[in-house]
Design brief:
The structure holds two protein chains of two kinds. Helices cover 44% and strands 4% of the residues of chain A. The radius of gyration of chain A is 23 Å and the shape is globular. Chain A is mainly alpha-helical. In chain A, α5 crosses α10, α13 crosses α22 and α16 crosses α18. Chain A has two domains: 154 residues, Fumarate Reductase Iron-sulfur Protein, Chain B, domain 2 (Orthogonal Bundle); 258 residues, no CATH class. The longest helix of chain A is centred in the middle third of the chain and has 19 residues. Chain B is mainly alpha-helical. Chain B has a domain of 179 residues. Chain B is built from twelve helices and no strands. In chain B, α1 runs parallel beside α9, α5 crosses α7 and α7 packs antiparallel against α9. Classes of the chains: A mainly alpha, B mainly alpha. The interface between A and B is large, with 80 and 71 residues. Bound molecules: protoporphyrin IX containing FE (HEM) (2 copies) and iron/sulfur cluster (2 copies). One protoporphyrin IX containing FE binds next to α4, α5, α7, α8 and α9 of chain B.
């Protein structure tokens, strides 16, 4: 299946820490962005292709990289502090799924930080300037840049390391800074930067234009009507709706994402909440975070503000997505607030699971759990939801609410081993801007710890399906679990389970179709 | 006054200045540089007092380290807690005795063993565990050796070749009141003090900055309330005020209402 070894699973439910190896993942890193992609994101584009693939760096790259590092350390306390205070205690060394899966020494979180720290020490600290050998400081060379590019794109910014570090040192912060430095010297990734360009031009990561989106949503309305006999609306750009739903664009067509979208629509329908999607802000995922660029992240986030104002909504709700929920929950108010024009009764933004769980508690949804009786479920906590956000008003709500919703719609649920769930969860292996085919080996290997846990509950407790609440997790898992002997359809959206169980009692949507005058055609039995 | 007394007097004056000014400047930097985004590691407290409690547990019990690695935690706690006891006992060289300090004396004295045990454990881990060895620079070993040497020289005085601690106190008291007094010339004491001065001097330029630094870590000291309270850094507010998308951009048309 591949020209590298797929990690063996031990089936014992715990992760064995591998012995160190050198350079098992040394390489060129993901495909590089061409100058025009960089230019669209306001990064320098004065670099050229070289023969045999790849690109030159920009002129004076060394000075520019150091100037950027200096700039960033004066704008981000995390960067300055974390470069200074690591004591090399080693607590984080065995916590990264990429280290576990690849055994490459440079994938240990602290070793990953050190790639930048060594250069920081050389140029910005007394000890590194005068005694580089003593403190392990190195000159900035093209080789170092290549290592940065390669290994900072083997970090999914999942923050598992930060949970265990006695000072909370977050390697994601270092990765983000490194990627921004790389972007200023002509080393962007094709995957991330092309996608961000599409958001600026079209409104979503897929480059799906408004017309195509409208068609897709209409198709979904027909599917659900065929299935249930009820016209559940999937509104687009409908002014005056109560809720603006921002959801990852994968929800519009990828499996199992789209089944989740159908679930959200049914929930809104049943609750009688009018809602709309926006073609201007048809994307929840904000890849500006992955590349560490505050400005690009803000530029993407502002589209949501603009859409909310234009559509005169009163609430903003986000669909199932991990990194998107981090930008939404933790950053949106900072980047695109204040949201004083929305209804102050609700937090801004809300997660769709907060809505669904609220409705379930109020008894406003009729649920038939037996519809999911063909499954035994487990739940994958998405890293960014688990460690960078909250749901509800109590700490830890991000773990409880998804599980409570699953339990409310399914009869059979079990958790994976304790050191692989909640805030100890392992990343799916494809987060942080790495969900690209040119990083397939990394993605397969990085999934190992999660696969280990899944195999354990599969064998011990008969688990048949794993639910996820992140577009990246869903895409990554459906792609990599076949390598470990599972099948794609074992991955489900949480709202797909809701969709299965929900009994539609409301005959007519509170939102009329804009073209509702045409005659009703007979609906077939589902 | 011996030459050595003058030399050590000057050395400790310099070391103290370097320590205080060096750490002060670093702390000022950490204070000044903003954390532009809410990046707290969740689940996190939703109130300020909750954060104080979280930080207290982190600093006193090393809670995160406990989750990460039990035996590193044991050695780390042994070393750090013993260090505090030893330092507490050492305050007798700088201030008048009170009943608390008298009570503390034996604990401080025997804590020296715990400190050495902890340090030895940490050194062993650094040499024996392949992952920790890989991430260690020479300075990481030297730091442990420095602390071990300080501890061993101190213990040798405490439990073997005693020095005149009344005179030591007079010397340091003199340094503080500009009334210079001679320092005993025992080699062990001179070694102990020389190494301590080195520790003080490297403190602000080394990883020892973790001690003041931990309090500034945004993943630990932020309140989890981004939806309730808008959090904007001064440089980010600048972008908003000037209607810019990029810091080096020309202002665009207003993007908000
Ligand atoms: C607020 C006060 C402090 C806190 C919370 C703190 C916490 C920690 C923690 C959690 C570690 C990692 C575990 C370990 O490797 O031991 C550590 C390491 C270390 N600390 Fe501290 N510390 C503090 C003050 C100090 C002071 C005052 C010194 C020295 C004079 C010191 C010296 C060290 C050294 C040398 C290490 C590295 C040990 C190694 O090489 O493994 N610490 N500290
Ligand atoms: C200016 C600062 C210091 C002075 C004047 C000083 C002086 C002394 C003296 C005179 C003793 C012998 C006590 C006795 O005979 O009973 C001693 C012991 C000791 N010192 Fe220091 N010392 C200083 C700093 C330090 C530091 C920073 C450390 C740790 C990193 C340290 C660790 C020890 C230890 C472990 C002992 C043995 C246990 C004890 O008697 O408390 N000292 N010190
Ligand atoms: S953030 Fe996640 S992927 Fe990155 S180094 Fe830490 S554990 Fe590894
Ligand atoms: S756990 Fe934190 S302090 Fe320890 S080595 Fe890792 S990053 Fe450094």
């Amino acid at each position: 299946m591949a020209d590298y070894d797929i990690p063996e699973l031990n089936g014992a439910g715990y992760i064995k820490v591998p012995a160190l190896e050198r350079d098992t993942m040394k390489g060129k890193g993901p495909f590089m962005a061409k100058p025009e992609f960089q230019e669209a994101l306001h990064f320098p584009d004065d670099f050229e292709p070289v023969e045999g693939g790849g690109y030159t760096l920009v002129p004076d790259w060394k000075e520019k990289a150091l100037a950027k590092l200096d700039d960033l350390r004066h704008r981000y306390r995390s960067l300055q502090l974390y470069l200074d205070i690591c004591v090399k205690c080693g607590a984080c060394t065995d916590k990264c799924h990429y280290f576990i899966g690849t055994r490459d020494a440079k994938n240990m979180p602290v070793a990953r930080q050190d790639l930048l720290r060594k250069v920081y020490r050389r140029y910005f600290t007394f000890a590194g300037k005068h005694f580089p050998r003593l403190v392990g400081a190195v000159d900035l060379t093209e080789e170092v840049v290549n290592d940065w590019y390669n290994y900072y794109h083997q970090c999914s910014q999942c923050r598992r390391c930060s949970v265990y570090c006695p000072y909370g040192i977050d390697t994601a912060e270092i990765s983000m800074a490194a990627r921004e430095i790389l972007d200023t010297i002509g080393r962007g990734t094709k995957y991330n930067n092309e996608i961000i360009g599409k958001v600026f031009k079209i409104g979503n990561n897929l480059g799906l234009p408004a017309m195509a989106l409208a068609d897709t949503l209409e198709g979904l309305e027909e599917d659900v009507e065929d299935d249930t006999g009820i016209k559940v609306r999937f509104p687009l750009d409908e002014e005056g709706a109560e809720v603006l739903l921002i959801t990852p664009s994968a929800d519009f067509f990828a499996e199992p994402h789209v089944d989740g979208l159908i679930g959200y629509a049914k929930v809104f329908h049943e609750a009688g909440i009018s809602w709309t999607l926006s073609s201007h802000a048809s994307e929840a995922a904000n890849f500006g975070m992955f590349i560490g660029s505050y400005e690009n992240m803000r530029r993407i986030a502002l589209r949501i503000r603009e859409a909310a104002i234009r559509l005169k909504v009163r609430r903003i709700v986000f669909g199932e997505c991990g990194h998107a929920w981090r930008v939404a929950y933790s950053f949106l108010n900072t980047l695109a607030g204040p949201f004083d024009f929305l209804d102050p009764k609700y937090p801004v933004p809300q997660h769709i699971l907060e809505i669904t769980w609220g409705l379930i508690q109020e008894g406003r949804l009729v649920l038939d759990k037996s519809q999911n009786d063909d499954k035994v479920l487990t739940f994958h906590d998405s890293c960014n939801v688990a460690r960078a956000t909250r749901m509800g008003d109590r700490p830890g709500g991000q773990f409880e609410i998804p599980r409570q919703v699953i339990r409310a719609v399914c009869n059979h649920f079990v958790d994976m081993p304790a050191d692989t769930i909640h805030d100890a969860t392992y990343c799916c292996g494809g987060g942080g801007g790495l969900l690209t085919d040119d990083l397939m080996e990394l993605r397969v290997k990085g999934a190992q710890p999660r696969m280990e846990a899944l195999k354990y509950v599969t064998e011990q407790q008969g688990v048949t399906h794993m639910a996820a609440i992140c577009a990246i997790c869903k895409s990554q898992f459906t792609k990599v679990i076949p390598y470990y002997g599972f099948t794609m359809d074992q991955i489900v959206s949480v709202h797909q389970l809701v969709s299965n169980a929900i009994v539609l009692k409301r005959e007519v949507s509170v939102q009329a179709r804009p073209d509702a005058d045409d005659a009703d055609d007979d609906s077939d039995d589902a | 006054m011996t030459f050595i007394s003058i030399l050590y007097g000057l050395l400790f004056w310099a070391a103290t200045l370097i320590l205080v000014i060096g750490v002060g400047r670093r702390v000022h930097l950490y204070w000044k540089v903003p954390a532009p985004l809410k990046i707290v590691t969740t689940p996190a407290p939703v109130t300020r007092s909750g954060v104080v409690w979280r930080m207290f547990k982190e600093v006193v019990f090393f809670t995160s380290l406990f989750r990460a690695s039990k035996y590193t935690w044991v050695f780390a706690i042994l070393f750090h807690m013993a260090l505090w006891l030893v330092l507490l006992r050492h305050t007798r060289y700088f201030m008048d005795m009170n009943s608390f300090l008298v009570f503390m004396q034996p604990f401080g004295r025997y804590a020296g063993f715990a400190m050495l045990l902890g340090l030895t454990g940490l050194l062993g881990r650094r040499m024996l565990v392949d992952r920790v060895r890989y991430i260690s620079a020479p300075s990481d070993f030297l730091m442990l050796l420095l602390l071990l040497s300080i501890g061993v020289s101190g213990m040798m005085m405490s439990f073997g070749v005693h020095t005149d601690i009344v005179q030591v106190k007079a010397f340091f008291h003199g340094l503080m009141t500009f009334d210079w007094q001679p320092l005993p010339g025992d080699p062990l004491l001179l070694l102990h003090l020389l190494l301590v001065a080195v520790l003080m001097i490297i403190f602000p330029i080394s990883k020892l900055l973790h001690a003041p630094g931990v309090f500034f870590s945004p993943t630990r000291n932020q309140v989890d309330n981004p939806r309730e309270k808008r959090h904007v850094a001064p440089w980010a507010r600048e972008l908003e005020r000037e209607h810019k998308l990029y810091a080096d951009d020309t202002p665009t048309a207003p993007v908000s209402r």
